Amino acid sequence: MGDSYGGGYSRTSYNAGGGDDAGGFVYGGSQNGSQSGAGKGYGDATLRPVTIKQLIDAEQAYPDAPFRVDGLEITEVTFVGMVRAISPQTTNVTFRIDDGTGVIEVKQWLDADKQDDENSPKNACALDSYVRVWGRVKSFNNKRHVGSHYIKPVTDYNEVQYHLLEATFCHLFFTKGAQGGAAAAANGGAGNDSMFVDGGHGAGGGDVPMSDGLRMVSAKARQVHAWLVNAEGGNEGLHANIIATAMGISVGEVLKCGEELTSAGVTYTTVDDETFAILDY
Amino acid sequence: MESTSTPRISSPLVDSYVGQNVMVIGKVQQLRGDTAVIEAEGQITANLNRDAHLVNGNAAQIIGKVLPDLSIKVLSSLDLGNGVDFKVAQAVVDATHQYRDLFVFDAAKGGMMG
């Protein structure tokens, strides 16, 4: 397996140690294979902060399918929890991690070359101390565990709280759209899928104060809303075609967003069903 | 893998968790024998176990069961030093209850409470 990978270095090193992950050969073949090939590419990998309950609740469409949280596939995840039990095995160390929302087993595979290292998992994590775990959810004999590459002790307790809030933020981002996503409209239509980077953090710069209605709509609808606010359509509003052309998205999408915004009470339709104007309070 | 939670709560929520295991993050106000008073948006009395090593004035995390008299029988406690931001801790309590789906297995489903 060692020479057959094409770019997915982080997985490969894990697979080499783990051995229980049949997906390793996805990267088989040549460098090109990984680009055109089946399976999720390295570029699609995400690192999502989660609570343990979210991992236990994660769904699979069919056995061996990728796990989904909030309807989105998860690859790498990170969480913070207390070590409840440590059981060293010959090939791995199994931890029971409890974050107050649930308990899950985490297996960290041992690197035969680095025995008795100071950084070995056993030494890094004390019982009943908090650790941060990075890894992937695995299913083995219908039992879920997390295969971890890296476990680090938490030195500042605020990280525990921070993590739980970050996990909540991500959940809300994916289910309800970016926070005050108005600023993201500046990116134009093309980059809509990368909103997290563009919109999430830049949100503070949005010049449109977020009303209550907007909190419930999708990120894209917010972009349409932000564009409309700046477009000065007046009482007549602007037709979906004009919005679509200006924002570089399809008319269908604009109509969908318009409907969403209208039902949220932040826009209304004017001369016909396809012309939207901002509802000013 | 266990579907049990110890929800993070503060003083105003104690009475809705009688008989359940919870987690409280707060400031230790008093230590008297095996009883501690924890400040978390109000005072909570905690009945400590033998191996508790809490420090007066420091932050602490306690996990335990809420008794009918609204005190907490501590199962596990942790001294958190003095660098804990209680506002953030309270924000987590709020998030826990506002977005319960992310944090709490309800007793009916988990079946391990009590």
UniProtKB/TrEMBL annotation, chain A:
Keywords in alphabetical order: DNA replication, DNA-binding, Nucleus
Residues of the Replication protein A C-terminal domain: 171-274
Domain OB: 77-143
InterPro entries with a match to the protein in the record: NA-bd_OB-fold, NA-bd_OB_tRNA, RFA2-like, Rfa2/RPA32, RPA_C, WH-like_DNA-bd_sf, WH_DNA-bd_sf
Gene Ontology MF annotations: single-stranded DNA binding
Recorded GO CC terms: chromosome, telomeric region; DNA replication factor A complex; site of double-strand break
GO biological process, one term: DNA replication
Transmembrane segments: none
Location in or out of the cell: Nucleus
Family named by the database record: Belongs to the replication factor A protein 2 family.
Entry-linked PANTHER family: REPLICATION PROTEIN A-RELATED, REPLICATION PROTEIN A2
UniProt protein name: Replication factor A2
Upper taxonomic lineage: Eukaryota, Fungi, Dikarya, Ascomycota, Pezizomycotina
TrEMBL record, chain B:
Annotated GO CC locations: DNA replication factor A complex; site of double-strand break
Annotated localization: Nucleus
InterPro entries tied to this protein: NA-bd_OB-fold (IPR012340), Rfa2 (IPR013970)
Cross-referenced SUPFAM superfamilies: Nucleic acid-binding proteins
GO BP annotations, alphabetical order: base-excision repair; DNA replication; double-strand break repair via homologous recombination; mismatch repair; nucleotide-excision repair
CDD domains attached to this UniProt entry: RPA3
Record keyword Transmembrane helix present: no
Molecular functions per Gene Ontology: damaged DNA binding; single-stranded DNA binding
UniProt superkingdom: Eukaryota
Keywords: Nucleus
PANTHER family xref list: REPLICATION PROTEIN A 14 KDA SUBUNIT, REPLICATION PROTEIN A3
Similarity section: Belongs to the replication factor A protein 3 family.
Protein's name according to its UniProt entry: Replication factor A protein 3
Source species of the chain: Apiospora kogelbergensis
